[in-house]
Design brief:
It is a single chain. The radius of gyration is 20 Å and the shape is globular. It is α/β, with parallel strands linked by helices. Strand 8, helix 5 and strand 9 form a beta-alpha-beta unit. It starts with a strand and ends with a helix. Strands 1, 2, 3, 4, 5, 6, 7, 8, 9, 10 and 11 form an 11-stranded mixed β-sheet that branches. It contains 9 helices and 11 strands. It is about 40% helix and about 25% strand.
């Protein structure tokens, strides 16, 4: 799935979007030198994301990126991939990534990290066991519990594998994880809080009331990664994101989405 966004920030949908981008480049470049044309109409930037475009995290990201790239007059689009295939697909296509941890670039040298996080993600442990109490990650070592994480979420895999007596299992989606917890098929599940909270209130989780949060286990800043073709954009995007945070805009976007979710919109 792709979503195109113009330099004004307005979305462009369907098969016409590539043609519109191409025509825009032609019109802006007419009568100009190649260098001037490139300055007037930068090549569209493609970033990868995982999951549903309507998820809380992805909508929050889109609000931030739409405003940031509008300020930078940079057209961009998003391509969505399953978590497990996202990195491989993005590398194969030579596109950027909308949000990864700070060390992600070590294994993906073709990408350039933007030195300002888009936001921080808080990770937590969840359970469906009524009598289970765990206040810290370290308590997992002697608890004898089983653990699970969503495939592709390396922060959770690393934390659980280091703390549990046996490697944690992976699961294909957060919705399935909620069901596994509720049914007692696994004791503990690790996930980003905004992802899990949305899964717990999804229609597929209707009727599940025994799943709860155990404790937070850490927070990670999530950074944009650009393809080297757009490396010169990285410092300008970093400055723009920093300015938006200082303005309170990034937090305002999150509060607006939370309020909309609370009102059922």
């Amino acid at each position: 799935m792709e979503r195109y966004v113009s330099m004004s920030g307005a979305p462009m949908h369907g098969k016409r979007a590539p043609a519109v981008c191409a025509m825009l480049a032609i019109l802006l470049g007419a009568g100009l030198s190649p260098a001037l044309a490139a300055d007037a109409a930068p090549a569209p930037l493609t970033l990868s994301m995982s999951g549903d475009a309507k998820s809380f995290g992805n909508r929050w990201s889109m609000l931030i990126y739409s405003e940031a790239f509008k300020r930078l007059r940079q057209a961009f689009r998003i391509e969505y991939f399953p978590s497990a295939r996202r990195a491989a697909q993005a590398d194969a296509q030579g596109i950027g990534d909308a949000g990864r941890i700070i060390d992600y670039g070590r294994e993906h040298p073709t990408l350039v990290r933007v030195e300002e996080a888009i936001f921080d993600l808080t990770f937590a442990l969840y359970t469906g066991k009524a009598g289970l109490r765990i206040d810290t990650l370290e308590q997992l070592r002697t608890s004898g519990v089983s653990g699970e994480y969503r495939r592709g979420v390396l922060f959770c895999k690393t934390k659980l594998d280091a703390a549990l007596p046996s490697p944690a299992a992976d699961v294909s989606s957060e919705i399935l994880a909620v069901k596994n917890l509720s049914a007692g098929l696994v004791d503990v599940y690790c996930e980003a809080d905004l992802v899990f909270n949305e899964a717990l209130t999804a229609p597929e989780s209707s009727g599940i009331t025994n799943v709860r949060k155990l404790c937070d286990i850490g927070a990670l800043p999530i950074y944009p990664y650009l393809p080297r073709s757009h490396a010169s954009l990285a410092p300008r995007l970093a400055a723009t994101l920093k300015a938006m945070k200082a303005e309170g805009l990034v937090d305002a976007y999150r509060r607006g989405l939370e309020q909309a979710a609370g009102s059922g919109h």
